[in-house]
Amino acid sequence: MKTKRYIIGFLLTIFPFFLFSQIEKNQNKQSNPKQERTVAATVQDPGVYSDRSEGRSLVYYATTGNASSIYFTEGWKEGVASLNDGTVLEGRLYRYNIYAQQMQFIHGDDTAAFAKPEELTSLTFDDHQFIYTTYKDEQEVKNGYFEVLTHGRCQLLLRREITYHLVDDLDDGIMDDSYVLEQSYYIRKKGEITSRIPLNKKCILSAFCDQEDAIKTYIKTNKIRFQNQEDMIRVVDYYNSLDTRD
């Protein structure tokens, strides 16, 4: 009986450590699905382009790279953050972690991120301006970071997201595990919730229905095909230039 009690006592002693070890291993697996084959989407050089949706959402796959390429830029960039209370933070180094959806900065010897990004009016670094705002994703209302591509009564915004793609997840021809960078466009008008706008003529005319005839003429005259970001910027800039007075 003593021997059995000793064995049971020993098992109860080591079990918590074994359990903690398994939890730690599981957490590591979740943070990096396949460490030995980690690859990432290179944001500045997206690699293979795939147009998989009717709305021409931009989807990039990459099967080469390193951990740093989950960021918007390589390395840290000096920037300026403007807060809702009028505070302006200058001289800090920033980077955009697209995979974690965090705007990170160096604070002393540590890497920090904005705990309350809704307090940001804008963040500008490396000649790119970002905002954090409420938006509608299909029928769900969310909050997130966007790059501002145009200014005016209607803003054109670009949303970036990176997800980890396992070969078995989708039958899409991708032969290796990879990170996937998805880019989609949104418009933001005063008094309206930010909403996604697919890159096609029908959706764009619907979004600018208050100036539909003028926009339709502009698209036809300038032979715009909505095949790239520049086409979209041109149309939104033109819309902003129109006189809206009755």
- Beta content comes to 35-45%
What's the average pLDDT?
76
Query: What is the overall shape?
Result: globular
Instruction: Report on the biggest sheet.
Output: 5 strands, mixed, barrel
Q: Quickly count the helices.
A: 4
Query: Helical amount among residues, as a percent range?
Result: 10-25%
Q: How many strand segments?
A: 12
The Cα radius of gyration reads: 24 Å
Number of domains: 3
Instruction: Report how far apart the termini are.
Output: 95 Å
Uncertain stretches: 2-57, 60-68
- Look at the helices and sheets and give the structural class: alpha+beta
Helix and strand run: HEEEEEEEEEEEEHHH
Description:
The chain is an alpha+beta fold. The protein folds into three domains: 1-31; 33-197, no CATH class; 199-246, no CATH class. The protein has helices at residues 2-31, 201-207, 212-221, 229-241; strands spanning 48-51, 58-62, 77-83, 88-97, 102-107, 110-113, 120-125, 128-137, 140-148, 154-165, 178-189, 194-196. Strands 8-9-10-11-12 form a five-stranded mixed beta barrel. The radius of gyration is 24 Å and the shape is globular.
